[in-house]
């Protein structure tokens, strides 16, 4: 008599199939988990890069509009640009007033780095003439700033402006602008160096030579 082969799987075959399925499932989960982490890291990197670009562009807009105008702060005439202890403040123009509300075209901008928060702030005063009690419009330019240094270029690199040798009793000296500024910062372990030209310096150069621009 012929013996018929039994149909179905044996217990050993089932156990082997289950083991293979478990291994494949574990490998698949690791792949999907890795893809998810990479996607999250890319999103965070893109967000940080976007913030860096926005910060660079904001400072560029500010410096392009820097003007040699002194500021009257609580009856104290401040130079057009002041750099002291890493804090930069300067006068800028170009404020639009499309509704004719009497908004001043000039304003005072200040950059402040707070190391305890690792944040770079932008402070905006709506008028270059202040009573000393005016509250600025404050916004965070950049977060995660581990190191920060700002200097002026004239053309040498200086950590303070106006220079200590300058006679600030002369009005023209208070109106002088350096040729540019340099910002060196470290964000998430990556170093950046931004250099901005102060275009309106040409106006002062021509004026000091007896000409006009």
From TrEMBL:
Q: Where are the transmembrane segments?
A: 7-29
Q: According to its record, what are the GO cellular component terms?
A: plasma membrane; type II protein secretion system complex
Q: Does the keyword Membrane apply?
A: yes
* Keywords recorded for this protein, A-Z: Cell inner membrane, Cell membrane, Membrane, Methylation, Transmembrane, Transmembrane helix
Its GO biological process annotations read:
protein secretion by the type II secretion system
User: Quick check: keyword Cytoplasm in the entry?
Assistant: no
- What compartments host this protein? Cell inner membrane
Its placement in the membrane is given as: Single-pass membrane protein
Pfam families, per database record:
N_methyl (PF07963), T2SSJ (PF11612)
Provide the primary localization. membrane
Q: Which SUPFAM superfamilies match?
A: Pili subunits
The entry sums up its family as follows: Belongs to the GSP J family.
Official protein name in the record: Type II secretion system protein J
What lineage is on file? Bacteria, Pseudomonadati, Pseudomonadota, Gammaproteobacteria, Moraxellales
